[in-house]
Amino acid sequence: MRIGLFLLLGLVFFALAVPRLSSEASPPRRLLIVGIPAWGPSWLSQDGKRIPAGCGPEAARLLLWYWATLFNMDLVRDDPEGALRALHSLMDTVTVHWEGVDQGLTWPWNFSRGLEVYAQTHLPQVRVRSLSGSREEVFAHAVELLQSGNPPVLLFDWVGLGGIFPNHYALVVGYDLREEELVVNPGWGYSFQAVPFTHGEIAPVQLFWLEFPEPKVPRRPLALPLETCPTVRSYGKDPKNIPWCGPTRAEELGSGLVLLLWD
Fold first, then answer.
1. Is 0.85 surpassed by the pTM of this model?
2. Any idea of the CA torsion for 144, 146, 152, 158, to the nearest 10 degrees?
3. Which residues fall within 8 angstroms of residue 200, CB to CB, at 6 or more apart?
4. What is d(CA 152, CA 223) in angstroms, rounded to the nearest whole number?
5. What is the b/e burial string over 31-61, where b = at least 16 CB atoms within 10 angstroms of the residue's CB?
6. In angstroms, how far apart are the furthest CA atoms of the chain?
7. What is the full DSSP assignment across 185-197?
8. Is residue 19 predicted with pLDDT exceeding 60?
9. What is the distance between the alpha carbons of residues 193 and 173, in angstroms, rounded to a whole number?
10. Are strands 205-211 and 127-133 parallel, antiparallel or unpaired?
11. Residue 46 has pLDDT above 60, yes or no
12. Domain 28-262: assigned CATH number
């Protein structure tokens, strides 16, 4: 009788504890890194002509700025224009006239090589990793990287204009699990743009990120101001600025870099 009572109590305790443990282990439903510059679109001078820097070098510069801020080193900060020019050259970015506008074209293999060569000038052991796969695979891995404080660059087809060729690089700075959206810093002069992974027109998709032997992303709990309410531009022909209010937690990553979390 006593053994049966203990067994019953044990089952009740387990039933109550499991939902609590699984809830604690579940990732934040929303995440957003704030504080990264809203640069771009940028232009360079080449042989006396004004040429577009291109979204590839622009996204790489933003990624390097993030890590330079975390590690307190000069990858970009002292000469952001020089960094952009160097990345443009290392990536063999070329100018093409497309959709009536001059644009910078960077092939994915040149993006990886140029980013790694530039990053290794200050971080010899760093490597560039990439993932090509389904929208589901790329979305899941981007979420995993962001949760570890390692924002990747997303290469995707912007509103279906590139057909089978993805045509835009952007730094991923957040996600929304319920809406199945990644949030990117698009390199177009504003900080947050939603990219819905429920839209087939964004595919094919590919990720690039930096891999360190011993990554140490500093994360310190931060007092959260009640008025914190960044806006994310929606996706489509008539975009709107959608407020993301009410984060439940905040963490300081580096000088001016803050991670906002919605549990």
1. yes
2. 90
3. 135
4. 27
5. bbbbbbbebbbbebeeeeeebbbbbbbbbbb
6. 92
7. E-SSSSS-EEEET
8. no
9. 9
10. antiparallel
11. yes
12. 3.90.70.10
- The string of pLDDT tens digits covering residues 83-138 is 999 999 999 999 998 778 888 999 999 999 999 999 998 889 999 999 999 999 99
- pLDDT surpassing 70 at residue 161: no
Q: How far is it, in rounded angstroms, from Cα 169 to Cα 155?
A: 4
Rounded CA separation 109/91 (Å) = 9
Q: Which two tokens stand for residue 236?
A: 């489509």
Calculate the alpha carbon distances from 174 to 37, 49, 50, 59, 159 in Å. Answer: 15, 36, 33, 15, 19
Q: Which two tokens stand for residue 258?
A: 């803050």
Indicate the residue type of 32: L
Let me know: does 232 contact 240? Beta carbons within 8 Å. no
* Beta strands per DSSP E along the chain: 30-34, 43-46, 49-52, 94-98, 101-105, 127-133, 153-156, 168-176, 181-185, 193-196, 205-211, 220-221, 231-233, 241-243, 249-254, 257-262
Question: Is pLDDT at 11 greater than 50 in this prediction?
Answer: no
Task: Domain ranges for the chain, please list them.
Answer: 28-262
**Rounded CA gap, 114 and 89, in Å?**
8
**In degrees to the nearest 10, what's the CA dihedral of 68, 73, 75, 80?**
90
Instruction: Specify the 3-state DSSP secondary structure of 118.
Output: helix
| Cα 222 from Cα 228, distance rounded (Å) | 12
Choose among 241, 218, 240: nearest CA to 229: 241
pLDDT digits 0-9 by tens, 62-76: 999 999 999 888 888
